[in-house]
Amino acid sequence: MKKTFIAGMLWLAVAGCAGPEEDVEAKLKNFYSWYITTNDTLKTGKVSADTLEKYVTTAYRERITSDSELDYDPLLSAQDYDKKWVNTLTVSKATAGREKIYRVSFLTDEKEKISHNIVVTMNKEHGEWKIDYVEANK
């Protein structure tokens, strides 16, 4: 009986650890799928402040919206959009810890197999995982 109880508690602990990681990856994949498609349709590179607030930390939002000199999209580290990128979009965990770092990749040219990779740092803000920094991954 005691062994069954301990095994059950270990299973719950392991199962509880797997869920949040998958949630962060799914949240990133959903965000970037929506973001790429929306920006390709709008052709403006501008999404609503409410949307940014939901997915991007306050500090990073202030940093990217205050720099009017940017000639690229800081959330993609790219200048253009193509909704076809969503077809090859992948998100994978790069490291663990207080800050979670993920690799977001997609092919910008499927024929030539040219990929675009960014490193996305996630951080908790008000109990939610949000994008805290994005950089190109060469």
What would your notes on this structure say?
- This protein is α+β, with helices and mostly antiparallel strands.
- It has one domain (25-136): Nuclear Transport Factor 2, Chain: A, CATH 3.10.450.
- 41% of the residues lie in helices and 27% in strands.
- The chain has three helices and four strands; from the N terminus they run H-H-H-E-E-E-E.
- It has helices at 2-42, 49-55, 58-66; strands spanning 90-95, 100-109, 114-125, 128-136.
- Strands 1-2-3-4 form a four-stranded antiparallel β-sheet.
- The longest helix is centred in the first third of the chain and has 41 residues, at 2-42.
- 17% of the residues are buried.
- Residues 1-18 have low confidence and may be disordered.
Proportion of residues in helical segments: 40-55%
Order of helices and strands: HHHEEEE
Overall structural domain count: 1
Spatial strand arrangement across the major sheet: 1-2-3-4
Q: Helix/strand-derived class?
A: alpha+beta
How many beta-strand segments? 4
**Tally of individual helices:** 3
Contiguous uncertain segments of 5+ residues: 1-18
Radius of gyration: 18 Å
CATH architectural grouping: Roll
What is the beta-strand fraction? 25-35%
Morphology: globular
Taking the alpha carbons of the first and last residues, their distance comes to: 54 Å
What is the average per-residue confidence, as pLDDT, rounded to a whole number? Answer: 79
CATH topology: Nuclear Transport Factor 2, Chain: A
Specify the CATH class: Alpha Beta
Largest sheet: 4 strands, antiparallel
